[in-house]
Amino acid sequence: MRKTKNRKEWRAVIIDACKTILDTKKSRRRRRRRRRRRRRRRRRRRRRRRRRRRRRKRSAVLTNYAVLQCIVLYSLVLYIILFCSVSHCLTFALLLGSSQAHEHYQLRIPNGENVTHPCKGGNSTWPGVGHENSSGGGKRNAFGVDFAKFGHTWNEDLCRADSDGDGWTNGYELGDPDCAWSPGRTPSRSDNITHPGVCDNDATCEAMESFADCSSRKFYCPRTEEAGVRHLNLTFKEITIPPSETNYFCMTFDLPDDQDYHVIGDEPIIDNADVLHHIIIYGCEPGLDNAIPVPIPCSMDSVVYRCNHIIGLWGFGHPGTCYRNDTGFRVGRSSFKRVLLEATIIILFYFHSSSSSSSSSSSSSSSSSSSSSSSSTSSPSSSSPSSSSTSSPSSSSSPSSSSSSSSSSSSSSSSSSSSSSSTSS
């Protein structure tokens, strides 16, 4: 006979089954918790790996940037050592570091355009009256310092002062001994005008003025006179300057491509120095249809025209650049066949205040309007930056560029073309 379980036994069986079920649930929960912990650990490890990768990537970028900076700096230094002549480097420094010189300041002092050069005499003048450089630009001389101190105006204090310490007042040296001159009037004397910022009659003060160099500032480059050197003029056509303070104009010129040449010198040819500040010549990449046959506003965007290789520079007061015998920029068949000439033109505006009587007020307002009309059309400024470049045929013939300026004296807005010529010797 089969023995049946009593109630106590059944209760024990049921309790064991419940314990088994509960143990199974606990084990499942434990497994789930373990899985969750493993997942969290994996996520943390992935995050740490991602952070490490990002740090390594940033470190690599910074390292590459530092290496690139070193390469660029080293290349620039190497380029200057191997290819940049001393005169060209000085031109670059002059372009970046020189202060602006404005010939309109000549109109604010008596006989400002007739100041005789103390070294040369005769018809040689010193256009940059307030600067140590006779052509203007750069450091001011003693008169230039006083002129700036008195607000760039001719008044009795400036007239009675003796800026250069030679015993003569500024008014006496400039032909206004009575200090009665004002802009627009004729000075009492227009001959024997001496320089108010250069001591030229007293040995005591002459010894302190080493800047009054009597050597010529004209362009001198013996290589340009050698046989086989080719000269090329790059000349801007006449343009009308808009009524804004600073304007950039660009125009391209095609170079001879029958063979390779080397630019060995450049000389500025300036027809109006009142507004021209500096000129940059860029070499254009070959194979691009980027010709600019007439001067157009360019806002220093030479890169837009794919012309971003500087091969020539000119700054105010610099006579030109003559490269060393072993130096030159290659142009022609296998290099630059086109160059872009960029000229920077600076215009200053004058405003007349009409605060007198009614009659003088009307006359001053008319002069103000004519002045504003002439500066708004600003001049059909004939800016013909022409560049004379020299090159010798056996890989040293060069078109070099020089500059011309745009004039802002006429009130008409028509523009005409100026001629450019090239000759070979």
From TrEMBL:
Ranges where the Temptin Cys/Cys disulfide domain occurs: 100-198
A Pfam family: Cu2_monooxygen
Molecular-function GO terms, alphabetical: copper ion binding; oxidoreductase activity, acting on paired donors, with incorporation or reduction of molecular oxygen, reduced ascorbate as one donor, and incorporation of one atom of oxygen
Biased composition (Basic residues): 26-58
Cited InterPro entries: Cu2_ascorb_mOase_N, Cu2_ascorb_mOase_N_sf, PHM/PNGase_F_dom_sf, S-S_Temptin, Temptin-like
Residue numbers spanned by region Disordered: 25-58, 354-425
Domain Copper type II ascorbate-dependent monooxygenase N-terminal: 233-340
PANTHER family named among the record's database cross-references: EF-HAND DOMAIN-CONTAINING PROTEIN
Protein name: Moxd1 homolog 1-like isoform x1
Origin species: Plakobranchus ocellatus
